[in-house]
Design brief:
Elements: H1 2-28, H2 31-46, H3 55-63, H4 69-76, H5 80-91, E1 95-97, H6 107-114, E2 122-124, H7 134-143, E3 149-151, H8 160-169, E4 175-177, H9 190-194, E5 201-203, H10 212-221, E6 227-229, H11 238-247, E7 253-255, H12 264-273, E8 279-281, H13 290-298, E9 302-303, E10 313-316, E11 328-331
Parallel strand pairs: 1-2, 2-3, 3-4, 4-5, 5-6, 6-7, 7-8, 8-9
Antiparallel strand pairs: 10-11
Helix pairs in contact: 3-5, 4-5, 7-8, 10-11, 11-12, 12-13
């Protein structure tokens, strides 16, 4: 009996001590428990790396867009996981722009960027003089029928099949820039005649083979065009500009810089029929004078040629301040 009472007394006292410690732990906290929790959190944080974040919702949307093309290819070379991440980022793109690289890129790199793209809306390869060929561009155009903007400025290694393919596949195209594409000819646009397109911006500057016949046909199938750049087309005459005046009522900007065969006759037609015109470039057009530009200026159309100086009155006075000295008004 005595022994059992002592053991019961000890167990009760131990329980009280335990409850007291537990209460202190709950109220004041326990350093040992906190250390265990922090160690477990540290271990979990150390096990997370970049590739554990959501690729499409986080990395491709908020992080990778800040990297340049060079940096993306460097990241792609780190590991197989990074390669798949960057390839996923390329696949999700709506816009491809290599203009900052110019001619310092390669066909292989371009194919890697675009091989999985099927939803592109714009592609800009400005300055790709040597590495971009039609063999690289044609598959991209066929896989991305929703293209709205294509900029091929200075891509001299391409051929007319590229433009023909755009007319066949890209019915939503609105912006085409073919500046300095010296390979361009009238036959390359035959595919545009068979399908209706809503082109609003067209740059054919420096395309030496473009003549009146092509421009006349183009304006017949692109009545909604707003920006038409035809600089340095030495074969262009009043026939083409007259067709533009009659066929492009929505025209806002026209460039005829360096078209030295265009005269005042066609510019008068522009002033008469293109009521929405806001700017015109006529530098180096020797036969376009202020006779036709004056009316455009009166409508507040911006002209890249300064207006002729108007009459100014200058008062010539003698150095002395004698009020009786006669004055001469000279009109220049």
């Amino acid at each position: 009996m005595f022994t059992s009472n002592n053991s019961g007394t000890r167990s009760e006292s131990e329980m009280k001590v335990f409850e007291q410690k537990l209460q202190e732990q709950l109220v004041f906290g326990d350093d040992s428990v906190d250390s265990e929790i922090s160690e477990s959190n540290t271990e979990s944080y150390e096990s997370i790396n970049l590739l554990d974040l959501p690729w499409e919702q986080v990395l491709s949307s908020f992080l990778l867009p800040y990297l340049s093309i060079r940096d993306l290819f460097k990241l792609r070379a780190v590991s197989s996981g990074c390669r798949d991440l960057v390839q996923t980022h390329f696949r999700l793109q709506f816009h491809i722009n290599t203009s900052m690289l110019g001619d310092h890129f390669s066909t292989l790199g371009f194919n890697i960027m675009t091989k999985d793209c099927t939803s592109l809306k714009s592609i800009c390869v400005r300055g790709a003089k040597s590495w971009l060929t039609s063999d690289a561009m044609l598959p991209i155009i066929s896989r991305n029928p929703r293209l709205e903007k294509v900029d091929l400025t200075g891509c001299t290694a391409l051929s007319g099949s590229t433009v023909y393919s755009i007319g066949v596949n890209c019915t939503h195209i609105k912006h085409i820039c073919l500046k300095d594409c010296i390979w361009l000819s009238g036959d390359n646009f035959l595919s545009f005649w068979s399908k209706k397109h809503h082109i609003e911006y067209l740059d054919l500057s420096g395309c030496w083979n473009v003549d009146d016949n092509l421009v006349v046909q183009l304006v017949q199938f692109t009545p909604k065009i707003k920006h038409l750049l035809l600089a340095n087309l030495y074969g262009l005459t009043d026939r083409a500009v007259g067709a533009i005046a009659h066929g492009c009522p929505s025209l806002v900007h026209l460039s005829l810089r360096g078209c030295w065969r265009v005269t005042d006759n066609s510019v008068r037609l522009l002033a008469q029929y293109c009521s929405k015109l806001k700017g015109i470039q006529v530098r180096e057009c020797r036969d376009i004078t202020e006779e036709s530009l004056g009316y455009l200026r009166s409508r507040k159309v911006l002209v890249d040629r300064p207006p002729p100086p108007g009459p100014h009155i200058f008062r010539l006075e003698r150095p002395n301040n004698n009020p009786h000295t006669p004055r001469i008004n000279l009109v220049l």
